[in-house]
Amino acid sequence: MSHVLVIYTDDEPGVLTRVAMLFRRRGFNIHSLTVGPTERVHVSRMTVVVDTDEATARRAVEHLRKLVNVLEVQQLGHGRNVVRDLALLRVSTAQGRSEVLQLVQVFRANVVDIADDSVVIECTGSLGKIEALVDSLRPFGILELGRTGAVAMARGLRSEATNRLAAAAVVAPGSTGTMSV
Amino acid sequence: MDRTGAQIIWECLLREGVETVFGYPGGAILPTYDAMTEYPIRHVLVRHEQSAVHMADGFARASGRTGVVVATSGPGATNLVTGLATAMLDSIPLVAITGQVGSGLLGTDAFQEVDITGITLPITKHNYLVTRAEDIAPAIREAFAVASSGRPGPVLVDITKDAQQGRATLDWEGAAPTRHLRHIPPSPSQVDLDRALVMINAAKRPVILAGHGIQLSGARAEVLALAELAQIPFAETLLGLGAVPASHVLSLGMMGMHGESWVNQAIQEADLLIALGMRFDDRVTGRLKEYAPNALKIHVDIDASEINKLVPVDVPLGGDLKQVLQALLPSVKAADHTPWLERIRSWRGDSAVRDIKNLPDDGHLYAAHVMHDLWKITKGEAVVVTDVGQHQMWEAQYYHHDGERSLITSGGAGTMGFALPAAIGAKLARPEAEIWVVAGDGGFQMTFAELMTAVQEGVKVNIAIINNGYLGMVRQWQALFYEGRYAATPILSPDFVKLAGAFGIHGERVEKRSDLEAAVARARQQPGTALIEFKVEQEDAVYPMVAAGAALHDMIRRPSPSPIAETGADPV
Fold first, then answer.
1. Contact with chain A for residue B104, Cβ under 8 A
2. Distance of CA B244 to the CA centre of its chain
3. Is position A177 within any domain?
4. For residues B544 and B566, what is the distance between their CA atoms, to the nearest angstrom?
5. A21 touches chain B (CB under 8 A)
6. A77 CB near a chain B CB, below 8 Å?
7. Which of B178, B304, B305 is nearest residue A170 as measured by Cβ atoms?
8. Which of A3, B174, B382, B518 lies at a 20 to 30 A Cα distance from B33?
9. What is the CATH number for A52?
């Protein structure tokens, strides 16, 4: 079963290593991991999808909460989230471009590059939607596929975790990014 | 820009209350050593950096204060690894400061450059690579805060040579740490506290599992209050020995692989386990599926990731043990568990006849005799620092620790070579204490170069080498589980008495139990470090024993030569 964890961390060199090392060390299986900036300076946000049971996911959260660089960890409940993945696909048009373009329309994806015998398609959506698009395009010949991994956010009001994060407002010492690994 | 980075390091250590550091100089840490002479901090020069960490570790365990290590880059830093892992697994607060090559050379495989922050990532609570003088104070202050807060542990601060040489203004207040407060220990919900109380007040066969967390939290009084009020017997983990007094009427003794049979039996038959600051290590649970099958389980731990890790618990009480117990105690009802206590006592009576110290003195010197007699002679008041192996288990079984911080031993990591350096650190932390090293002939040979450190520093520790000519615990496993094939376990030793002479310390050998008392008395009277080699029975084994992976009640018992012992009904 996959579980979505949202982790707020200091934006410092080496933090990704610490998080990744923790998952490796404790044997938690990462399905995808994305990282990027947030609405706050010096704070990064990771979305980690782990394939594991509920108890292990909860243990992963408790382990993450022990990392000095981690500000907050949120385990998203099932069904109440927006989960988005972005895929870029280079698809052969040797069997006819128009059929490929039709599928692109059906999936509300975009063509972002056209070459003589292939197109590059960009698609954003839930993990299921992207997998469906990939399956549909496979018969035409997928020459290259790149995916970002999931970025997720809870639906509805600002989450408790984000509130706690804002309330805590703990500023990292030496947040110049040169101090810590 | 009034100080060099090196001066800031010492200034910070001084302000953190550090009086003693353990270390070894080298190229990349040289600016820091150069500045050291300006500060009233004692530096203990070790013979190997691994020992420096063990000394700082022994210092921390003996005193409760944070131990400090200084080493250079490259091999100096990598030599710390075993010591840091030892401290990590046993939750010991340490700060290790290492020199690093100049920041311009980082990543170039420069001379003595090793990625020590990368290497120590999983064996430290946190670590830092500092490349600028102005970042030193915030890193060191935070390192001390992280090391000693919550569940303690080691922290490493790697400081480049140019950061030590560069200049900065020390802004002590501005460097005040805050990030360690991000993960303030949880506190249990009232609902969970109430559920725990219902279970405690209803239990008929409760057992407290007393762990190292009692020591770390300073919760001895609260644990004893709970035990006495509700008449709950307590069993100790290896690191829980001394956290609660062994002579207490409710103390059962050590649990687990080499725990006494009545202790494990009590756990297996309990209807409620109250786990206090312990983590259900495989050495204390045996086979998890059959662990305490009839018991409800309450688990108090400051580290929430320990709860439900191996043993599913009925009530998780995440938080500081002392505070959790203070919240529980007013609602705990006085109870009388006489039938339960009587039952445990009857199991105990059966085991006592197999107890090695009751064996006739047939001229053989048994390690258990040494421990028992040492306990008697020192009135149980010494701080004993053990190495790892059979002697460690015999110590745990036969030296009864009443005092807090009176047993110092590498539990989680089981690091051989730990005892002598840790004992030197312990003595420096508590000069008034009588310190005994108990080490095997194998482990002692790993770090005995530190005898010279003890001499150079004028430190007095008493050393009991339990020499059976084997790596005894491994030999025991070979005898029991590998059909007696003693692969690589027979070990030769130097003449330890002559060795003592070479180091300029008192040394003697004891081969008969009747010579033990006088030899121990002579060692204690020596003004300096003294060594006694005890030549013990070569193929003795530690009993009882739960084989790795066996159920906790499935114990291998000492084969008894006494016909009396065999007539009693054996409940195990």
1. no
2. 15
3. no
4. 15
5. yes
6. no
7. B178
8. B174
9. 3.30.70.260
The tens digit of pLDDT for each residue in B191-205 reads: 999 999 999 999 999
Chain A CA closest to residue B146: A68
Q: How far is B120 from chain A (nearest CA, A)?
A: 11
Backbone angles phi, psi at B20, to 5 degrees: -135, 135
Query: Chain B within 8 Å of A14 (Cβ-Cβ)?
Result: yes
Domain shared by A114 and A100, yes or no: yes
Identify the pLDDT of residue B564.
37
- By the CB < 8 Å criterion, does B139 face chain A? yes
Task: Identify whether A176 is part of a domain.
Answer: no
Indicate whether B139 and B240 sit together in one domain.
no
Residue A79 near chain B (CB below 8 Å): no
**A175 within domain boundaries:** no
In a domain, A179, yes or no: no
What integer best gives the mean pLDDT of chain A? 88
Question: Who's near B546: CB < 8 A, 6+ residues apart?
Answer: B256, B257, B258, B259, B264, B286, B552, B554, B555, B556
Question: Is residue B496 flagged as an active site residue?
Answer: no
Mapped onto helix, strand or coil, the DSSP state of residue B345 is: helix
Peptide bond into B571 cis (omega under 30): no
Residue B125 to residue A180, Cβ atoms within 8 A: no
The last residue of one of the domains, among B328, B350, B372, is: B350
Local structure of residue B66 (DSSP, 8 states): P
Same domain, A62 and A25: yes
Q: Given A58, A168, A173, which is nearest B138 (Cβ)?
A: A173
Q: Show the domain range for A111.
A: 83-147
pLDDT band at residue A172 under the 50/70/90 scheme: very low
> How far is the alpha carbon of A14 from chain B, nearest alpha carbon, in Å?
9
Domain count for chain A: 2
| B49 flagged as catalytic | yes
| Inter-chain CB pairs, A–B, below 8 Å | 79
Within 8 A by CB and 6+ apart from B428, the residues are B20, B42, B44, B55, B59, B457, B459
Q: Which residue has the tokens 């110049």?
A: A176
Mean pLDDT score across all residues of chain B: 95
Q: Which of B132, B179, B305 sits opposite A63 (nearest CB)?
A: B305
Task: Give residue B232's Cα distance to chain centre.
Answer: 25
Structural domain of residue B361, as residue ranges?
355-542
Tell me: do B418 and B270 sit in the same domain: no
* ipTM of the complex as predicted: 0.90
Of residues B544, B532, B561, B539, the one with CA closest to residue B373: B532
- CATH number of the domain at B172, please: 3.40.50.970
Q: Hey, is the C-beta of A173 within 8 angstroms of any chain B C-beta?
A: yes
Judge: B182–A63 Cβ closer than 8 Å, yes or no. no
Distance CA B459, CA B492 (A): 28
B395 is catalytic: no
The mean-pLDDT minimum among A169-173, B119-123, B449-453 falls in A169-173
Please check whether residues B325 and B361 belong to one and the same domain.
no
Whether residues B404 and B296 fall in one domain: no
Co-location of A22 and A108 in the same domain: no
Token pair belonging to B59: 């210092």
What is the per-residue pLDDT across B312-327, written as a single tens digit (0 to 9) for each? 999 999 999 999 999 9
Residues A58 and A117 both lie in one domain: no
pLDDT band at residue B247 using 50, 70 and 90 as cut-offs: very high
B352 in contact with A, Cβ within 8 Å: no
For residue A137, the distance in angstroms to the closest alpha carbon of chain B comes to 42
* pLDDT at A166 (0 to 100): 65
Residues of B with Cβ-Cβ distance to A180 under 8 angstroms: 128-129, 139
Catalytic, out of B11, B49, B306, B395: B49
Q: Which of B36, B473, B545, B555 is catalytic?
A: B473
Percent of chain B's residues with pLDDT above 90: 92
Q: Same domain, yes or no, for B219 and B316?
A: yes
C-alpha span between B440 and B287 (Å, rounded): 29
